[in-house]
Amino acid sequence: MNPKIKISNSIGFQSPVISVVIPLYNKGRYVKRTIDSVLSQEFQDFEVIVVDDGSTDDGPEIVKQFDDRRIRIVTQENAGVSAARNRGIQEAQADLIAFLDADDEWLPDFIETVVGLAERFPDAGAYATGYRMLKGGEHVYRNMTIRGGREKCGCYFDLLRKGIVISASSVAVRRSVFDRVAGFRVGYQLGEDLDMWFRIGLYYKFACSPKVCALYYYGLPDNACHAVTPSGDHPLRISLSEMKENACISPSIKSKAMKYCAHKLIADVELLVLRGFREVGKWRLRSYRQTFGINSSFIRVLLLLSIFPPALLRFVVMIRLSLVRCMLTLRSVNQRMHIDLLKKAHKLIRNKDNANNNR
After folding, report:
1. Are 21 and 99 in contact (CB under 8 A)?
2. What is the pLDDT of residue 307?
3. What pTM, to 2 d.p., does this model score?
4. pLDDT higher than threshold 50 for residue 49
């Protein structure tokens, strides 16, 4: 592979093809595994920027033990994962910037895959692969990948309907994109990554590979999604309000974005209820009404919050979410069966054509 995205800086030093940004905060028990997965990549033209966000454990010292000139560590006072990623973006030298959380890892073909996507789809702003969710660090929960088994490039909100699910550890973004959409929204501990993909999707296409190239460790003791107590507004709703005032975004993209946010934000309320944050859920439901008005989703969640006691409410929401997961799994299985049938049909047609030609 001879990447076309390699650049040189003003003093003639050739920059790496891709910069890898790893935000680090008290992940000493995992960060060696994470960096090892980068150093084991089949594509080796990269730099690694570890942003120590005020860690109080031995994580920074573990990073310093790596004897590789491509790895450098920068330190800042604790300001949150968004600020750490933004610092990494500022420090990055490459035109393509990938993110990897300090408790996740990549399979050996991740960088090769996203660099290949960047070459084949130069008009896209972000490049994602599938990823595997490992619950508790061992059990394979599920593979998250776009349906159909082929690479796709298009509108982010259309790709969401085709099964794309992006993790902060399975995506690379062109540097120029951040000049337009700005960095990760600081001050939010949950949802800041979804908000970034949303803002990128308003202006740029996403290119996706169905290959599973990253491992996302879900349910670890110090995962942010479990350790953080949610409060205040969801960053998606703030970006949605900003989008409405922006005349540069096409009406069709705005319409798709509104539908996505309506679904995502109401699902967020249900998850808050499931985790026991009933009052925060109520507050966000009121903000949902201000944004989208009263619709069937609003009424459903309002009834859940009003009628059921907390313990029973969590049970009802859990049952509903389990049914949704089952439906998604069945739909995925049906699509795979349909694809297999099409392949068999095409093979029969080719065999028949070959037989006729031999006659």
Report:
1. yes
2. 54
3. 0.79
4. yes
User: Among the three residues 227, 258, 282, which one is the final residue of a domain in this structure?
Assistant: 227
Listed in sequence order, the residues at least 6 apart from 322 whose beta carbon sits closer than 8 Å to its beta carbon are none
Q: How many domains does the chain have?
A: 2
Terminal C-alpha separation, the chain: 42
Residue type, 323: L
- Looking at the structure, tell me whether residues 204 and 279 fall in a common domain: no
Note the pLDDT tens digit of each residue in 140-171: 778 888 888 899 999 999 999 888 889 999 99
Q: How far apart are alpha carbons 9 and 194 in whole angstroms?
A: 32
> Rounded to whole angstroms, how far apart are CA atoms 98 and 48?
10
Contact criterion met (CB below 8 Å) for 206 and 154: yes
- Range 169-192 burial, b when 16+ CB lie within 10 A, else e: bbbbbbbebbeebebbbeebbbbb
Per-residue DSSP letters for 246-269? -TTS-HHHHHHHHHHHHHHHHHHH
The range of the structural domain enclosing residue 325 comes to 235-358
Helix intervals (H) in the chain: 31-39, 59-64, 81-91, 110-120, 156-161, 175-181, 192-201, 224-227, 235-244, 251-274, 278-292, 296-307, 310-358
